[in-house]
């Protein structure tokens, strides 16, 4: 066991981004190992606006593994958490802190317990991919704490066993999850296609759509699709492999037209296989459909894609513009069609990179009221405004992968007791 008495706590803190798939993962060939039936591709979103921060601590004084999520203790008993902990522990190495006189030997890790505290800088209930950032951060931070030497690709295949989409959050920029062939899942991991500096013009606007309906979880939704949909086989075997190649090419060439066509088509096909599931699964709602119409009408009137849309297992829209100018025009259209309720204030209605609002010429609620209908719908009366149907917008961009946080004041666990601060 470590050299000192039982009073010490060793801690590591990490921050991991969330990601949005532009070629979707939907369907597993192995439920236990979380092995997918097709490759997928995602954009990592800027951790400044959407990320999980996790602190992990170890001490001989801890009697069991414990975890707190957004300040509330949660059970670690689920197989997904257990697998991540087990796989990381297996790869742990010696850790020594000479200044504090602490030395943890490789074999000590099997008997030491950890405390983990994690929080998301965006509302978990908003239906944004919180499990992707959460599991990526858990595995990344534990790997740092335990001095795991494996590369990020291998670490991503551990995060995959927490939640499939989490493996893509181990890298910044543009990421592919290769489905792999091995039965043990060792080659089902994330690889970076290009880092966040590759295509910096892209602007991402997320419309958080109000939804009262309880959604089917991704895990059970995709299980039902694999069991009952006739279309999913065609998607996984024929459509996605061709799309993945084209999407890689579009990203490499920063070809927004191809990127947007592929992303929209793939989102629509994912929702089509959900509808082809028995009983059918509806993730999008009327507001989601209105957002698709808004974008499609605009894209059609310009003759070339101005914006790409994609929807995960929920009604929120993720809209990707090729540059700030188009993002400002998109913002005007969104605010025209989905103005906030009277009592909402603008600073909480558009969050993240608010400078897009200035570009859109909107600095007050009055400006939103006074917006003109966009030209592509101008002559098509009557056109309606759907007040309050979007809860808020998050403006962000493609961002970096997980990072260690060294600023101890930001740590979520008390360095002496190892309990949440
Ligand atoms: C629609 O990764 O949440 O967001 O592996 O069962 O945890 P599990 O599912 P999860 O599914 C994500 C599905 C998706 C598409 C995607 O992110 O590729």
TrEMBL record:
Gene3D superfamilies: 3.30.230.10, GHMP kinase, C-terminal domain (3.30.70.890). The keyword Ribosomal protein does not apply. GO terms for biological process: isopentenyl diphosphate biosynthetic process, mevalonate pathway; sterol biosynthetic process. Its EC number is 4.1.1.33. GO terms for molecular function: ATP binding; diphosphomevalonate decarboxylase activity. It catalyses: (R)-5-diphosphomevalonate + ATP = isopentenyl diphosphate + ADP + phosphate + CO2. Residues 204-405 form the Mvd1 C-terminal domain. Keywords: ATP-binding, Lipid biosynthesis, Lipid metabolism, Lyase, Nucleotide-binding, Steroid biosynthesis, Steroid metabolism, Sterol biosynthesis, Sterol metabolism. Residues 17-190 form the Diphosphomevalonate decarboxylase-like N-terminal domain. Transmembrane segments: none annotated. GO terms for cellular component: cytosol. The keyword Lipid biosynthesis applies. Pfam families: MDD_C, MVD-like_N. Belongs to the diphosphomevalonate decarboxylase family. PANTHER family: DIPHOSPHOMEVALONATE DECARBOXYLASE. Performs the first committed step in the biosynthesis of isoprene-containing compounds such as sterols and terpenoids. This is Diphosphomevalonate decarboxylase. It comes from Rhynchospora tenuis.
